[in-house]
Amino acid sequence: MRRQVDNLKRRISNMVTGRLSIPTVTLLIGCYSIPAAAQQAGRRSALEVEVERRGPIHEGFAQPVAIGANDGLLVFKRPPPLLKEYPPVLRPAAWQAMWLPGYWGWDNRKKDFVWVTGAWRVPPPGMRWVPGYWSARDDQFVWTPGFWYAAERPEVVYEPSPPQRESHQPDPPNPSADEFSVPGYWVMTSGGYVWRRGHVSPFHEGWVWMPTRRIATPAGSVLLRGYWDYPLTQRGVLFAPVSVVNGRQASPAFTPQSVVDIGRLSGWLFTWTAYGHYCFGDYFGEARRERAIEPWFRAENDPVFAYERWRRAAAQPNWPGALAEQFARRTKQLERAADRRAAPSRELVIPFSDWSKAPGAPLPLMMGSYADRLSAAQSAEAIAQLARARASFETAAAESPEKAATFALPAAAPPTAVVRDAPRVGTTGEFIPGTVGREVPGFGRRTLPGMVGRTLPGVDTTAPGVVAPGVLPGADTRLPPGAELPKPQTPRKPR
Length: 495
Known about the structure:
This protein has eight helices and 32 strands. The chain is an alpha+beta fold. Helix 1 runs antiparallel to helix 2 (22-31). It starts with a helix and ends in an 87-residue tail after the last strand.
């Protein structure tokens, strides 16, 4: 203990000389063990919270894919100030796991805000988290969602809103048992928006494809490149949201201690499209339908459900039907219950200590070192600053919608080790046939005359038959086995 105190004094001295920021040291202090006497004195300033057994899931942990226009969730209450949140000492053993800080979310049953607790998250390979935020709109407040963005991209580009499309069904609409549907999306070209049709792609064990899509922001539309992500059970530790019982203490702060058992989440998972969040818990019955919250297996093109259905196909061929029956049975049970809040979901939210000791825990955990806590503090601080900067920029850019807006992102920290490779063959197939000599989105609108058989800098061309890709940067350009190459075309002059 004396050594810990000496280390803490040295770090505080560094803070005074400007080597560490005050929020970082504040978080470090909260991570250290405090003697019993100090804990007795500090209980008067501790934040009293109540663990929720239902609510929104941190969108950095899992986020549904919304196809089409979405105006966002509007509420009539101002969100409270952000809480001070200290990550638990236990953390996933994966070296790349990061702490995503919490934020205020909305509970439509309570008509009030709940704190969406932070999460330990293994980020998708090559991606960085850009957090969402609440902003004022007339006399209401609207949630602008966060998103995973390519770490190699130094800036976020905002474009005018795309046109409306009557149908968003993927093309082709009927994939085989070992394939999933990838929806289409709008691409900005020199001549305006062009619809890039959907297609099918094969599954890969241990990977979930999050398709390319657009999201609406106050500053315009943002095109998010598709990427491979981990299954839910391999993404990290998901903590349950909390409600503040008494937030008048001098220093409101807490450490989450209750987790959502991801292994049991499939029977309690819902999609709230207008909010852009997954929700867990007892969202059943008429109240659910009024809020437009649907079971996740009914959501259009839900990538997580598609992967789980494929993964369970051999051992549980009737899993989708059994899941639907389970939801219907729980809906009837809840509608018959005198107290609709007494839903049988208590086994879903459990103490972190119990979850970490379970032999079937999805990810191994370890005791975080001082360096781990320092890294978590710096990561949380950087994400909070990025949220404020993004909110300020997009609010100002919304006042001049006719001007092109570009938000510069801070430099992403380079990885310190090599993660397992994401699938390379047949990842997306996102290309535009006949792009020779035409502008290809995703490469700064450069023209690529006569690119058939040539090499494009920065694109993987190790496989034979690489053609002018016309894909977003970093997407796989190699053809699946058995695929036929397009016929060579005569180069045309750039338009």
